Amino acid sequence: MKIIAITDIHGRANKVKEILEHLKGEEFDLILIAGDITHFGGKEAAYNILKEFISFEKPFYAVMGNCDGRDTLELLEELNVNLHGKRIEFNGVGITGIGGSNITPFSTIWELSENEIWEILVENYQDGDIVLSHAPPRNTKVDKTFVGTHAGSKSLRKFIEEKHPPLVICGHIHEAMGIDEIGRTLIVNPGPLSRGHYAIIDFDENEKRVKDITLERF
Fold first, then answer.
1. Using only C-alpha atoms, what is the Rg of the chain?
2. Considering only the top CATH level, what class is 2-217?
3. Mean pLDDT throughout 66-90?
4. Distance between CA atoms of 180 and 122, rounded to whole angstroms?
5. Inter-axis angle of helices 114-124 and 154-163, to 10 degrees?
6. What does the pLDDT look like over 139-151, one tens digit per residue?
7. What band does 30 get if pLDDT is binned at 50, 70 and 90?
8. All residues at 6 or more sequence positions from 133 whose CB lies less than 8 Å from its CB, including other chains
9. Residues 192 and 174 sit within 8 Å (Cβ to Cβ)
């Protein structure tokens, strides 16, 4: 199964149009969006972005980011693409979602306590699932800010160490684009789509493992 992983759109509809034009004719199965669809925008701003994916007519799912309006989750539910606090199966692969972020110094819109993050993950996850999370796990290559601080979720890291999901797709920390590992879990922060970044992931649905990840830019 081939997945296009996208995060941190921040309301840049022009970038969405560009990537979808870029992906025309490409063979892939699913688009996963790891949050920050808008830049502190609400339902209308989110729909302005998501309508492009709807028109593209490829399956997609998303979680909200910490910079998405409170009613963005309602829109994701209405469109039947929400993965926050949910689990779906696609082509025999389970995908569990957690939106928002751990607590930040900036009092953004969707921030969850570490206990809330832990409970959502434990409640929904099944062995072998992909995890779609806006926030990255703590103390990795993909959660390090410009000033060197690790800003990811401690609970997500603990969850990975205990449950060993094959793949975690995240975002949130724009400058921490990259690929890392915790045990046998591969973690990818594709980098912000607002700056032209995304990732292509080749996932073996039978063995529940990542065959290949490439970071791309258009």
1. 15
2. alpha beta
3. 98
4. 22
5. 30
6. 999 999 999 999 9
7. very high
8. 34, 63, 97, 98, 99, 153, 156, 168, 169, 170
9. yes
